[in-house]
Specification:
Layout: H1 7-18, H2 26-39, H3 55-61, H4 65-79, H5 87-99, H6 105-116, H7 118-136, H8 142-145, H9 154-161, H10 171-182, H11 194-207, H12 213-226, H13 230-243, H14 265-278, H15 296-303
Length: 313
């Protein structure tokens, strides 16, 4: 992510990128403040007195291409926190991206949302998601369960439910308990994309997050912190699409808006990114089922997962 040398110019560039004539909305400034205080741990950076950088100055201050990419991604994150998202905001972030010679899926989705509406933006989101869905899926299930099932699969459900017979406190036992306590239907009983949700919910358990909108977004930030990859950035965009923009709405899920404006949500998400970055290795795409018999505390020790999260997991 953004290194220590570039934090101050990055924050000044982000201040410029949200100022569509109003210094940024309360949500945008609140989210930026949460990342400054919690993720970057820079209490010396006062948003009220920092001078924003314009696009050309931002490009000059941040010449390194990987650092520019990270700044662009933060710009997109803040851009999506403006409600309603306006053409002026999109054009402003585009000017920064052009000056820094940047492009990417988040920029494209924001442009589409403003210019072509929700339906086309959802189509963009779905395309980006489909391109990385293998990387999001449980490795041992991906060949058979990558796509939604036509009907429930009792064999898969029974295989997962059997983990409740493992000793209490093991990863597998905690996984099934997570479903019970959250009122969720096990993959296999629910035919909706089992390969994704086995991996995703194993990550919930290991990282320690529940299923509220802010916790889902914090988990996505945590996973991006584990490894700064394209697939993980798209996962964070997926959470923003579902809980900040209400794009990902279906019969089974009603999208939300403004999750990062909720009390404590921005700090939780910034802390998620920080906790993920502090881990010693990436557990998001491992074969979680092989670790099912291992005590959860040992799994967390194996990957250096810091204390925190938002639930007993």
């Amino acid at each position: 992510m953004i290194d220590e040398e570039h934090v101050e110019p990055a924050v000044r560039a982000l201040l410029g990128a949200i100022d569509a004539g109003d210094d940024g909305t309360a949500e945008q400034r609140g989210v930026l403040q949460a990342f400054v205080a919690t993720y970057w741990d820079r209490p010396d950076l006062d948003l009220a007195t920092l001078a924003p950088l314009d696009p050309d100055a931002a490009a000059a201050a941040i010449p390194d291409a990987p650092q520019r990419q990270r700044v662009r991604e933060f710009m997109v994150l803040l851009e999506l926190c403006r409600h309603p998202l306006t053409a002026e905001q999109v054009a402003l972030v585009d000017r920064y991206a052009t000056a820094m010679e940047q492009d990417g899926v988040g920029l494209q989705m924001a442009r589409t949302l403003v210019r072509d509406g929700t339906a086309r933006a959802l189509a963009d989101y779905t395309r980006f998601k489909d391109e990385v869905r293998v990387e999001w899926s449980e490795p041992s299930l991906v060949d058979r369960y990558l796509d939604p099932l036509d009907e429930p699969d009792p064999e898969l459900a029974a295989r997962l439910r059997a983990m409740q017979d493992l000793p209490e406190g093991t990863l597998g036992w905690e996984y099934v308990e997570f479903y019970r306590s959250q009122g969720l239907t096990l993959p296999g009983d629910d035919p909706f994309i089992p390969a994704f949700f086995v991996a995703h919910d194993m990550n919930h358990v290991i990282a320690g997050y529940g299923t509220t909108g802010q916790e889902e977004t914090a988990l996505s930030a945590f996973i991006l912190g584990l490894a700064d990859t394209h697939a993980h950035w798209v996962l964070l965009l997926a959470s923003m699409s579902a809980y900040e923009l209400a794009l990902a709405t279906s019969d089974a899920f009603v999208g939300k808006t403004g999750v990062l404006a909720r009390d404590g949500a921005a700090t939780l998400v910034a802390d998620g990114l920080k906790r993920g970055a502090a881990c010693t290795s990436d557990f998001s795409d491992i074969d979680h089922l092989t670790l099912a018999p291992v005590p959860l505390v040992e799994v967390r020790e194996q990957f250096g997962v810091p204390q925190g999260g938002a639930t007993r997991w």
